[in-house]
Amino acid sequence: MSFLDPSALTQVSGMLLRARLIVEGALTGAHRARLRGSSVEFAEHKEYAPGDEIRHIDWKAYAKVDRYYVKQFEQESQLTAYLVLDTSASMDYAGEGLSKLRYAAYLSAALAYLLVQQRDRVGLLPFGQLDSGGYVPPRAQPAHLRTLLGSLEELCERGGAGDASAAAALDRVAEIAGRRRALIAVCSDLFAAEGDGLAVLRRLQARGHDVVVFHVLDPDELSFPFRGLTRFESLEDERVLLAEPESLRRAYLRRLEAFLARVERGCADSGVGYHRVPTSQPVERTLLEFLETRARLRGGGRTWSS
User: Fold this and answer.
1) Sign of the alpha-carbon torsion through 259, 264, 267, 269
2) DSSP 8-state assignment for residue 11
3) What are the φ/ψ torsions at residue 243 (nearest 5 degrees)?
4) Is the backbone of residue 264 left (phi > 0), alpha (psi -120 to 50) or beta?
5) Cα distances (angstroms) measured from residue 291 to each of 11, 92, 132, 272, 287
6) Which residues fall within 8 angstroms of residue 47, CB to CB, at 6 or more apart?
7) pTM for the model
8) How many C-beta atoms surround the C-beta of residue 286 within 10 A?
9) Phi first, then psi: what are they for 25, rounded to 5°?
10) Rounded CA gap, 193 and 184, in Å?
11) For the chain, which ranges sit under pLDDT 50?
12) Residue 86's closest CA among 105, 62, 106?
């Protein structure tokens, strides 16, 4: 299966086209890679092809045969989704590819595109942007999608800033969403979210919301590949450390492993969906893995439900 290198997406003009390419790449990549299943059982369906309306995909058929088919649209109750995007300074880090912020924004754009194609309502809430026009209320119209994607592009151009409060952003989502079940998708490196942020995620899940975390990390952060005397600069508080990486690697990787284990265990214990996402992984693959996981968990129903 062939996916775009994440860095190639920066060469694509416009967030809308990027989102469409990611979504169509994920869906067509899946049906090309899996050939199991009986075509007779689904003779009344048309196999998905680029350009078909995503909202017509039969997710029950997909769960049975691992291939995408489109059908006549069946009326579903409308879902409300909130995309919670980490825009803190640490998200600006980029090793050899996309910054974590751009990767998270492209993934958020693809999720928004998919949701609106299914006639669901989707909104955007960036960390730390609550009082500066960053919040985009959830709606389902195509014109609204363009507004939301424009906000994502603007956030990428502005770059990350400060030490954003995940807990404050998630509390705001809880306040806005109320008791009506919603999908809440968080894209973050979680450096500002452990502790209070995870506690809010648990509360949201306990209230009946459908919460999923995309833990976006650069490969450098996962492997600490640095060699020779290196200058390390904190993006959050401007601290600087000049050191030989070899003297730090073992302790760093041990602390990282403990951090990842705490986050993953905390999500699992509270029923929050968790996906660890290196920025070297094609965005289409991340979306595909998310959709496949949802289809399995829901036994073939819609990949998300209201």
Assistant:
1) negative
2) G
3) -155, 165
4) alpha
5) 26, 27, 33, 15, 6
6) 31, 67, 68, 69, 70
7) 0.80
8) 25
9) -65, -40
10) 15
11) 1, 31-43, 72-75, 130-131, 301
12) 105
Spatial neighbors of 275 by CB under 8 A, at least 6 apart, are 212, 213, 214, 215, 286, 289, 290, 293
Q: Which two tokens stand for residue 193?
A: 């979210």
Q: Give pLDDT, residue 33.
A: 35
d(CA 95, CA 98): 7
Which DSSP symbol is given to 194? T
Comparing CA positions, the residue from 62, 271, 73, 63 lying closest to residue 184 is: 271
Distance CA 109, CA 292 (A): 19
Domain-embedded: residue 67: no
Residue 70 phi, psi dihedral angles, 5° rounding: -110, 150
pLDDT at 224: 84
Q: At residue 242, what is the residue type?
A: L
Residue 75 falls within a domain, yes or no?
no
How large is the greatest C-alpha to C-alpha distance in the chain, in angstroms?
65
The Cα angle at residue 93 between residues 25 and 228, in degrees rounded to 5: 120
The CATH number of whichever domain residue 191 belongs to comes to: 3.40.50.410
What secondary structure does DSSP assign to 72-120, as a single string? -----PPPEEEEEE--SGGGG--SSS--HHHHHHHHHHHHHHHHHHTT-
Q: Which residue range forms the structural domain that includes residue 150?
A: 80-282
| Residue linked to tokens 């809880």 | 174
Structure token pair of residue 203: 């509360």
Residue 44 covered by a domain = no
Q: Is residue 242 part of a domain?
A: yes
Tally of CA atoms within 13 A in the half-sphere of 249 that contains its CB: 12
Give the total number of structural domains in the chain: 1
Question: CA neighbours within 13 Å on the CB side: how many for 127?
Answer: 29
Report CA Rg, the chain.
20
